[in-house]
Amino acid sequence: MSVTRTKVVIIGAGPSGLLLGQILDRAGIDNVILERRSKDYVLARVRAGVLEQGTVDLLTAAGVGERLAEDGLVHHGISLCFDRSLHRIDLTELTGKAVTVYGQTEVTRDLMAAREAFGARTIYEAEAVTPLDFDGVSPRVTYVKDGVGHEIACDFIAGCDGYHGISRASVPDGAIATYERVYPFGWLGILADVPPVDHELIYANSPRGFALCSMRSLTRSRYYVQCPIDDHVEDWTDERFWDELRRRLDPASAARVVVGPSFEKSIAPLRSFVAEPLRFGRLFLVGDAAHIVPPTGAKGLNLAVSDVRYLSEGLIEHYGEQSGAGLDAYSVRALARIWKAVRFSWWMTTMLHRFPQATTFDQRIQEADLAYLVSSRAAMTSLSENYVGLPF
Length: 392
Ligand code: RFL
Ligand code: PHB
Prior knowledge:
Elements: E1 2-5, E2 8-11, H1 15-26, E3 31-34, H2 39-44, E4 50-51, H3 53-61, H4 66-71, E5 73-75, E6 77-82, E7 85-90, H5 91-95, E8 99-101, H6 104-118, E9 121-123, E10 127-132, E11 140-145, E12 148-153, E13 156-159, H7 166-169, E14 177-192, E15 201-206, E16 209-215, E17 221-227, H8 238-247, H9 251-256, E18 262-276, E19 279-280, E20 283-285, E21 291-292, H10 300-321, H11 325-352, H12 360-375, H13 377-387
Parallel strand pairs: 1-12, 2-3, 2-13, 3-9, 6-15, 13-20
Antiparallel strand pairs: 4-8, 5-8, 6-7, 10-11, 11-12, 14-17, 14-18, 15-16, 16-17, 18-21, 19-20
Helix pairs in contact: 1-6, 1-10, 10-11, 12-13
The chain binds 8-demethyl-8-dimethylamino-flavin-adenine-dinucleotide (RFL) and P-hydroxybenzoic acid.
């Protein structure tokens, strides 16, 4: 087994791992990323689309803001659709801030290119990645690549390996608490090269269930409909999808839907999940490894980025000023922001979806929630300040 050394081993090359690596590279802190999948596999995953201003600012400060500034679409509002009519919420008028539509795939591509240009080490298709001895002062990570075992000794391990990763699973049961809600439906999402139905996003609550009209560019649309969790993608022809989407929108929006062949179609389950704490000796949990939110609030990627902000500040302080204060505060600082986003995402999900078990009372409360929201500047401001991103 070959043994090498670095300062920080990062497990996972999703947005959390790649951004943490990029910030550490620029601060002169040596790191290695170990990723289970191939680079092409990671790039083929279609996920988030909405970036908070704070996310854009951090990506820009990390030197990967160029293409984002060129191709990102700045949105100043969103629309809610219910009762067959559209209600626009002016995010910028209410908060002074906007959001940027730029696909997670593109963020990942930019971060991978920057890392390659810098010459930092990323090991793709690393098997059996195992974080070890993180409760002591000499942690290490072992892995297998092309049938050969390797070990990397390090100062810290960053678990950026998503919900199904090995980092959280390596923590002894008694040391971690988890909180979870699983929702009784999924999102069927498609990508198609057709112009979006509107210049901003539409979140729709209809008697047939939730729908979301999003986009990746002015010629590429990303649409979702709520579906039963046990549905199969094969049951959903393009025709059925377009028909269902139109039936969940107000008549004017439905008439503007441009249909075309989809080139990506998948079903995602919806879940809220938080693990506490986020630090176990010299192992830190970051992003989806520590928490999952349903996508209704567009918060998952943005939360991953705010975790990276706090952790990178702590690591830079550790190496620069020999102070452990930032690392000691990481878990508490990150969790305070995480729980607020978990609450917002849960609330948006509850307000906008049709729940199979809902009583007529629940249904009336949902209608009142929506009616109150669009009639109250205070309520719309509250939604907006959460949607554009709470302060760090
Ligand atoms: P990721 O992206 O899951 O990356 C984890 C990486 O770790 C690797 N890995 C391992 N590597 C080595 N050894 C192991 N044992 C490993 N196990 C796993 C994986 O292969 C992977 O490469 O987590 P990260 O970096 O924390 O990023 C989180 C975001 O990806 C996630 O929160 C968002 O995509 C959530 N999300 C959205 N977030 C938003 O902010 N705005 C949105 O509009 C939004 N829309 C969405 C979403 C997620 C969706 N799905 C499918 C889950 C829409 C959807 C449909
Ligand atoms: C997306 O474009 O994929 C998207 C946008 C907003 C959300 C969730 C997903 O709330």
